[in-house]
Amino acid sequence: MSSSAVITTIGRNAFQDCFRLSNINLQVCTSIGPYAFNGCKKLGEASMPLISSIAESVFQGCANLSSVSCPSVAKVGSYAFYGCSRLASISLPSCSIIEINAFNRCVALSQVNAPNLTAINSRAFQSCDLRSVSFSLVTTVEDYAFDQNQNLETVSLPLCTDFGENVFRSCHNLKSVSIPSFSGTPSPGMFAYCSSLSYIPIPTDGVSLPSNVFAGCESLESASFSQCQTIGAGAFMDCYALSDISFPVCTTINNMAFNGCSSLVSVSVPGCTVMGRGAFGLCENLASITFGSVSVFEEQAFAFCKELLSVDLTQATLIKSMAFEQCEKLTGISVPLCTELQERAFANCYSLVSVNLPSCSVMHESVFTNCSNLAFASLPLMTTIPSYTFYGCENLTGIYAPNFSMIGSWAFTYCALSQANFSTVVKVGPRVFSGCESLTTVSLPNCETVEFGAFDGCSLLTTVSLPMTSIMSTWAFQRCVNLSSVYAPSCMIIGESAFNGCLSLVSVSFPTCKTLGSYAFYGCSDLKSAYFRDCTVVGSNAFAYCKSLTTVSLPNATEIGSYAFQYAYDLSVLILPKCSKIHGGAFLGLSDLYLLSNSVVAIPSTDIGQVSTIHVPRSLYSQYVNNSNWRYYSRKFAEY
């Protein structure tokens, strides 16, 4: 569709979404309303010699528009040419103002001639293909005006004094910027991700730098600001080539300011007293840094600074989470005033050898996790060792913590401690000493609870003294293959697999234990005798495969779980005076068994095991023989 009629005025929305309109005569037109040709996808050219102002969204979405002539236009309205993806060039000799988003997403637009232009509003040329920007009269450029012009190489704005945020963001090929009249503070993100920019194109005597101003400037090698006192968040983030910085009077470095500056080796900011989150994080080659009296180190302040050799923490009172995580070459720290260490503050500091925290009373989880060379830690004020604190500290042999009463889960897992003698501890959390293969003795005189897996896999552990412990949870001493002595006279509950695989246990006595969990002593091949005075319930497989077991005394047991004594080949004496119930397979594989009880023990109709001879009291012999559930074994009974 085309129109050859003479038109002087076109109203609002007049031809909006006329998808087939391809040509229109605007030679004598003096006024075009907003949205007049919006969405006319086949319209290829527009010549408007008498139009003085292009209204809002007039040609928005005209994807085929490639030629525009408007010599008299003084102002281009917002969204006027938004998304005109084939428009490659435009001449605006009379234009002084280009409003917001006017040419946004004109992805082919590489040339703009506007010699009288004075103001460029927000996002006016965002996502275009401009190669050069030269506007000699422009004084104001608003937010994101040239954002994502990825082929833009040179900028000349000699009179411009006012720049909005992210004006040149993501102009990846920008190499030359001339803004000689600009003397104020740059805007946030002004040159963010201009990855080809290799120098600072603004005055360097300002007192502050805003956030993200040079973030992602991958080619920038040096930055010197003699009067700068405050560096904004992310100001130089991911400036990978930045190797030389000078900020002699800087007092504040905000969040992420130099994060990812992997070429920085040495930094001196002698007046700095505030260090923000991630300020130097991921500066992988940073070996030394000098700063002022910093009392709080924020999250990830130096995280992953793998070459950092030392850091002055003498004034630190608070070190937040991950502040120095994976500072792999940090060998020692002195923190005399620090009262709190947060999560993973020094995790994965592989070269850290010793730690002295004389003032620390609050510590969060995983503070020294995987500090594989840490040998000694002094924590005189700590009352609780949190979870994972020394997890994986495989060379930790000594710890001074005279006041702690609680040990969190996995706190010493895989450490090299040879002794665990802690007189004040009342609770040992899950997996606390699991995998401590050098641990030989444990003395916890006031410990009340040992939680699951606390000593699992401590292969050299031989002696355990737990006089006050009432609960030994699941897997508590599982796979302690050299454990030969356990003293726990107050224990009331032994959890599932608590001593599973303790091959060196010979004799056990838990007079106060009331409940014996499943698999509690499973596979204790050297165990010969067991005494459980108060035990009422024996769990399934509790003594299964205890091949040396000969005598078990359970004077108050009322129930024996399934397969409880299966393949305990040498078991001959089983004292069960009060037992009333035996579950299936309880004695599977036994040859000779004495049942010491005051009444007939109840069994299920299912098989309790192929026992060769069952010795029962003479006074109960006939009752056993005539009992319906025992009848299957009637020929195996013998009196005693």
Explain this structure.
The protein is mainly beta. It has one helix and 54 strands. The strands form 14 sheets. Strands 33-35-37-39-41-43-45-47-49-51 form a ten-stranded parallel β-sheet, with no helix packed on it. The chain is elongated. The mean pLDDT is 94.
Weakly predicted, low-confidence segments: none
Strand content: 15-25%
Rg, rounded, reads 41 Å
Largest sheet: 10 strands, parallel
Q: In which range does the helix fraction lie? A: under 10%
| Total beta strands | 54
Mean pLDDT: 94
Distance between the termini: 116 Å
In terms of quaternary structure, the protein is: single chain
Number of DSSP helical runs = 1
Arrangement of strands in the largest sheet: 33-35-37-39-41-43-45-47-49-51
Q: Based on CA inertia axes, which overall geometry fits? A: elongated
In terms of structural class, how would the helical and strand content be classed?
mainly beta
